[in-house]
Design a protein that fits this description.
The chain has about 350 residues and is of the alpha+beta class. Helix content is about 25%, strand content about 25%. It is built from 7 helices and 15 strands. The protein is globular. The two termini are about 35 Å apart. The N terminus is likely disordered. It binds zinc ion (3 copies). The site of one zinc ion has 5 residues, from strand 14.
Length: about 350
């Protein structure tokens, strides 16, 4: 691809592209800066005001609409007895204990027979108010949500069939959100998904060679170089991923080694909420119509002793569409270098 540099009055195009490998997952990314630099170059519309008004009128997650949702598996109340956070089973689960293979399918595959889609799929409603993003709730409220993440992990770890729980957020149309009311999803699987297996493999190969945690070492280097550092607070640091898949991909990690998110203390949840809030405020400055996915990566159940995993949050703004290039190869093209992205986030006034 082409980069545009001005030399006198004449424009010359300098072809640049850089292949980077994510040190943890082994995922490959091409950093291809075109005429990058202007944040508005990376916009995908999230939602229109008209859509938003319609969505708010018949929102099943708003206070007062509780009867439209399945009964909660967990509720957190404030001092006067109003709910703050509700966890409900997903009405249309992808995996669940009660789902069976349709008899009508009658599929017989000797190579890879269909299995029951065992698991659980829940929604965490993060506010009684109709707001869309983390920056619209208080840091205290966000800390409560982050504690609920921990408590759902604890809950599902008591099911001997469950190996991994993926907690994630889709915010904005471009990130795949179907309901705009602030929420996260919890999906419990009886196996370890490939994305996690790749990270576990990277961490354990490094450990075998160096007897140290890969992510602790990465973090030490990031904190020393500071070229991708975005924010630091208490026991947490945020930096742009060296091989980010999309412009402004940012990770938040505990600076002291912790493999299991279930060990997060309530105080830690509060510091983590502060960092998450700041990072998202900054992202909203550089990408006014921000859509993003937030992913929590933590050690799978039963693997606590076997691998020196280091839990983290990945925030992936959705600014470009995934097309044939990505689907075909699993390779991502990021048109903004993580170093330039970090500088813009660091300088973004919130
Ligand atoms: Zn709502
Ligand atoms: Zn570590
Ligand atoms: Zn990761």
């Amino acid at each position: 691809m082409l980069s545009c540099a001005s030399r006198g009055s004449e424009l010359t195009y300098v072809p640049v592209s850089e292949l980077r490998t994510d040190p943890i997952s082994g995922r490959k990314v091409l950093i291809v800066e075109g005429r990058a630099g202007r944040p508005s170059d990376f916009l995908v519309p999230s939602s229109t005001p008209a859509r938003q008004a319609a969505a708010e009128d018949n929102c099943p997650f708003c206070v007062g609409a509780e009867r439209q949702t399945p009964s909660p598996s967990l509720e957190v109340f404030d001092k006067v007895g109003n709910w703050q956070v509700r966890v409900i089973p997903n009405k249309y689960p992808a995996v669940a204990a009660h789902l069976t293979i349709p008899e009508s399918s009658g599929v017989q595959s000797p190579f890879s027979p269909p299995e029951q889609a065992y698991g659980a799929h829940e929604v965490i409603i993060e506010s009684a108010r109709h707001v869309q993003d983390v920056t619209e709730i208080s840091v205290e409220q966000l800390a409560t949500v982050l504690q609920v993440y921990r408590d759902r992990l604890k809950h599902w770890s008591t099911d001997p069939q469950i190996r991994y729980v993926q907690i994630f957020k889709n915010v904005g149309f471009a990130a795949g959100a179907t309901l705009e009311h602030i929420h996260s999803q919890v999906v419990a699987f009886p196996f370890i998904p490939a994305a996690l297996e790749n990270e576990m493999r990277g961490a354990s190969e490094y450990y075998q060679r160096h007897q140290r945690c890969l992510v602790c070492d990465l973090l030490a280097q990031e904190l020393d170089q500071r070229t991708r550092l975005v924010f630091e607070e208490g026991q947490f640091a945020a930096f742009c991923a060296y091989a980010g898949r999309q412009p402004y991909e940012t990770w938040i990690l505990p600076t002291k080694h912790q493999s299991d998110y279930r060990e997060l203390s309530n105080d830690d949840a509060f510091s983590l909420a502060k960092v998450l809030n700041q990072v998202l405020r900054k992202l909203h400055v550089v990408l006014p119509e921000l859509s993003y996915n937030l992913l929590l990566r933590t050690v799978p159940f039963g693997e606590e002793e076997s691998a020196p995993y280091h839990w983290h949050l990945e925030i992936v703004p959705r600014t470009t569409h995934l097309a044939g290039f990505e689907w075909g190869t699993g390779l991502f093209i990021n048109p903004l270098s993580p170093e330039r992205a970090a500088k813009m986030l660091l300088e973004a006034a919130v």
